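Q: Got a minute? One more chain.
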Amino acid sequence: MPHLIIEYTANLKEETDIPGLLKKVNDSLLSHSAIIPIGGLRTRAIELNDYRIADGTEDDAFVHATLKLGGGRTEEDKKVLCDDLFATIKEHFADLYDKRYLALSLELHEFTNPTYKQNNIHARYKK
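A: Always. Here it is, folded:
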């Protein structure tokens, strides 16, 4: 943990740099090293081929990011983290947002129940 999952409509694939977006959002999260463990971070994008937006009459598009975190961070830390992350997403899509119909969103999901995980990647960063 944390995991960032970005869903985007297929009609954006040719208009934006998804690998570049992944690097930017990953870097944004890692800039909060006090609350984001590098060895636990997973960032991925999922292209959506089947979707319908609004009434379906336009070539609308959307990008929705879900940040999943384990518990234990303060409300202030989560707000700063999400504000920075959403600013990064908006900046990446700023030019495209001015040219086409596009909805951007970010949600935070904080686990309240225990999670089950096994990860030896953390050890590499503790050396």
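A: Helices lie at 18-30, 75-92, 94-99, 121-125.
Q: Perfect, thanks.
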